[in-house]
Design a protein that fits this description.
- This protein is mainly alpha-helical.
- It has helices at about 5-25, 30-45, 50-85, 85-100, 100-120, 125-135, 140-150, 160-175, 175-185, 190-210, 215-225, 230-235, 240-260, 265-280, 325-340, 350-360, 385-400, 405-435, 445-460, 465-480, 480-500, 505-515, 520-530, 540-570, 575-595, and strands spanning about 365, 375-380.
């Protein structure tokens, strides 16, 4: 069977998602069972994978789905706990004191706070923390989910203290000992030094693309969720959006150069938060109070905007609460995520006992059903869900929430989590079947590699422009930048050698694309939607985030093409033209619409 025929067949599960979930807007609970059936049929009858291997992949997917539901439950419980204590009301007033403008609020909460949570924990936790916080501030559920997906880009390659680089790229490339030796020698040091070089190049590409992310975020919010459905209302805060972007990306890239892959997202987001919040409090570049932008009256919102979780004012225990006390649960979550993930090497001796305790209870299943598929260790105390539940219990005590109100928080959280289960128990097993199609009797490579081979045979020397899209598709299917890097890093390195360009840049493009793919990942959207009780609208959200994904894959790909082709083609090449087109479009849009006075 030819390369292109196999590539088209391997594309069928993704095409099924595109047609039924995105185009026809079926809910994930209907579209994903069909997609699972397509992937399983291809694995069994075309790739001729043993039925036991498909069953093992399905079981592994079900386990991963349960861990996602556990994280979702913890996030929902924490939100409902804060609602019951009245803390959400206090936090809402605190953000109003900074700025009543929703455009400013979404940049601070999603772009900066969400990036910090991603840098410390990964695992899609920005959606589990920032998305419900936005709903608590009065954002429509769908707008909050969209924001949570769009910012799943710049910080992701350095999420969980650099896991996508230090584990994903490392695992993907280190399977070839000759490659490890040659690349370590090329940088005059150890293999870890080479990973730092990859990490810095990834940071450079992210910093370029990330500069426009806050502006895209606010423009899409005003276009799809504003009364006037206008991109222009988002562009009106272009100065603040670019200021917030650079406040994060400049320290981000400096950390990538001096500190390594563990720190860009952490350092960039923390420095950015400090700078931007202080500037916003002083009114620097933010709209005047009378020009603050807000959503229309809630009574006018379409029903599809809102989920089953509705944040209403709650009296708590009747005692007044300070802003600092209201924020304590989020501080606790951040500290637990940071200390459990060990981002600071010099604190290892102090943190080791705590981390060993969290990982002491572990469930494993090596070689499921006698196959080569291993279930990753499930550690309930270590997973973000366990940390969210622990924070909820601490909050119950320190906020003195009445017993009946706290019991209701648990009941509501369990009900909302259960409603998300149908979509996830088909989505994640489909992913596992798709990526575990190796070793079949037909002798084909597994589906993701076959798909990448098909694209490579079509585009040839233009591969750098398309490399991020392959990484993005890998992440969108697998739900993980780390897994995408594991699957494709060696393939991308080989493509760099095949077209006679620096393969390290191609690997960096893979990592950046893998980060961008989180924007359109089905099970990430399902998980984020479930946190706010917004189910059945997954396709609508992906339709919105698809264009930001294309931007985020295309611009770094073009920059990468310019860099690797400069020696042969000079400054004027295809990459330059695409970069110039994107820059011209951004400048034109800002010049045309950004100078207009904001409307209330």
């Amino acid at each position: 069977m030819g390369t292109m025929t196999l590539a088209v067949l391997s594309l069928l599960p993704i095409a099924t998602v595109a047609v039924f979930l995105v185009m026809l807007r079926w809910p994930a609970s209907r579209a994903m069972p069909l997609t699972y059936a397509v992937a399983a049929a291809l694995a069994l009858f075309v790739w001729q994978v043993p039925g036991m291997q498909v069953a093992a992949a399905t079981i592994n997917g079900l386990v991963i789905a349960l861990t996602l539901l556990y994280i979702i439950f913890g996030a929902i419980l924490l939100l409902n706990t804060l609602r019951a204590s009245g803390a959400i009301n206090v936090i809402r007033r605190g953000f109003t004191d900074v700025s009543r403008d929703r455009r400013v609020q979404v940049i601070i909460v999603a772009w900066l706070f969400g990036s910090f949570i991603e840098g410390s924990a990964g695992f899609g936790t920005p959606a589990a923390v920032a998305v419900p916080l936005l709903v608590g501030l009065g954002f429509p559920g769908m707008a909050a989910v969209m924001a949570g997906m769009i910012i799943q880009s710049t910080p992701v390659s350095f999420g969980a203290a650099g896991t996508p680089i230090l584990v994903g790229v490392n695992t993907g490339l280190s399977a070839d000992p000759a490659l490890v030796a040659s690349m370590a020698a090329s940088v005059g040091g150890e293999w870890t030094d080479y990973l730092r070089v990859v990490g810095f190049r990834v940071a450079v590409l992210h910093a370029v693309a990330g500069t426009l992310v806050p502006l895209i975020l606010v423009s899409f919010m005003t276009r799809f969720f504003g009364e006037r459905k206008s991109f222009a209302e988002g562009l009106q805060v272009w100065k603040f959006a670019l200021f917030a972007a650079l406040s994060m990306t400049v320290p981000y890239i400096i950390a990538g150069y001096f500190l390594g892959p563990e720190f860009p997202a952490l350092v960039g987001s923390l420095v950015g938060l400090l700078i931007v919040v202080l500037a916003a409090r002083r009114g620097f570049l933010v709209p005047k109070p009378e020009e603050a932008w807000d959503f229309g009256d809630k009574s006018t919102w379409p029903s599809e905007w809102t989920g089953s979780i509705e944040i209403k004012d709650a009296a708590g225990n009747g005692a007044p609460m300070s802003l600092a006390r209201a924020w304590v649960p989020y501080v606790i979550v951040a500290l637990l995520l940071l200390t459990s993930r060990d981002p600071f090497v010099w604190l290892r001796p102090v943190l080791d006992p705590f981390q060993q305790f969290l990982q002491s209870f572990s469930l494993t299943w090596p070689q499921i059903l006698g196959t080569g598929i291993d279930m990753n260790a499930v550690q309930p105390l270590y997973l973000p869900g366990g940390l969210f539940i622990a924070t909820s219990l601490i909050t119950w005590a320190i906020h003195r929430i009445p017993g009946p109100a706290y019991r209701q928080a648990w009941t509501t959280s369990l009900q909302v989590t259960a409603s998300a289960s149908i979509a996830l128990v088909f989505t994640v097993p489909m992913v596992q079947v798709f990526i575990n199609t190796m070793g079949g009797a037909a002798g084909f490579e597994r589906m993701p590699i076959v798909l990448a081979d098909g694209v490579a045979s079509l585009v040839g020397g233009a591969w750098p422009i398309f490399a991020p899209f392959i990484g993005g598709i890998g992440a969108a299917v697998a739900g993980s930048n780390t897994v995408s890097n594991m699957m494709f890093s060696q393939f991308q390195f080989g493509m760099g050698e095949r077209i006679a360009v620096d393969p390290t840049w191609i690997v960096a493009l893979q990592a950046v694309g893998g980060a961008a793919g989180n924007m359109i990942c089905v099970h990430n959207v399902v998980a984020a939607s479930a946190v706010v009780g917004l189910l059945g609208r997954e396709g609508s959200i992906i339709r919105i985030t698809l264009l930001p994904f294309v931007y985020y894959a295309l611009l770094p790909g073009s920059v990468g093409y310019l860099i690797v082709s400069y020696a042969d083609q000079g400054i004027l090449n295809a990459g330059t033209y695409i970069i110039a087109l994107i820059a011209a479009l951004a400048i034109y849009s800002i010049a045309r619409y950004g100078g207009r006075p904001a409307t209330a």
